[in-house]
Design a protein that fits this description.
Blueprint (H helix, E strand, L loop, with lengths): L11 E4 L3 H11 L3 E5 L4 E5 L6 E5 L16 E7 H10 L10 E4 L2 E7 L5 E7 L1
Parallel strand pairs: 1-4, 5-8
Antiparallel strand pairs: 2-3, 3-4, 6-7, 7-8
């Protein structure tokens, strides 16, 4: 048995510059729920009824990234990629596509930036 083999992902981490601004975005625009506060300028955000969630930490220096840079990303799933795309567009969120991309088999995908400039991805139905 190889006890060094990765078994799963514990949670995703989002490093941000302005903690309050990003917390507001993830709670009120993205609809995540704060599970509990952690250290100063950090908390754990729950994804629906799942045990999986996102650790948000503020107070970091901004990093310039774009869709062509080497990076890690988080892909969230939603029922309707088009509905979330329209919601983000109405909130003046920086979208990296003109519309959700048809991935086939009823799946649509797009990328956008959170207030800290992190590139996130969405996958969902029309």
């Amino acid at each position: 048995m190889d006890n060094t083999k990765i078994r799963s992902i514990a949670f995703a981490t989002i490093y941000a510059d302005d903690y309050e601004k990003n917390l507001d975005f993830y709670l009120n625009v993205m609809g995540l729920e704060k599970s509990f506060d952690m250290a100063k300028n950090s908390c754990f955000l729950k994804l629906g009824d799942e045990n999986f969630g996102v650790y948000l930490e503020g107070g970091n220096k901004p990093n310039i990234i774009d869709s062509a840079t080497t990076r890690s990303s988080i892909m969230f799933t939603v029922d309707s990629a088009s509905a979330l795309f329209a919601k983000l567009q109405a909130q003046n969120v920086e979208l990296l596509h003109k519309e959700p991309q048809d991935m086939g088999e009823g799946d649509y995908w797009f990328m956008f930036k959170d207030p800290a400039g992190n590139i996130l991805e969405i996958l969902g139905g029309k």
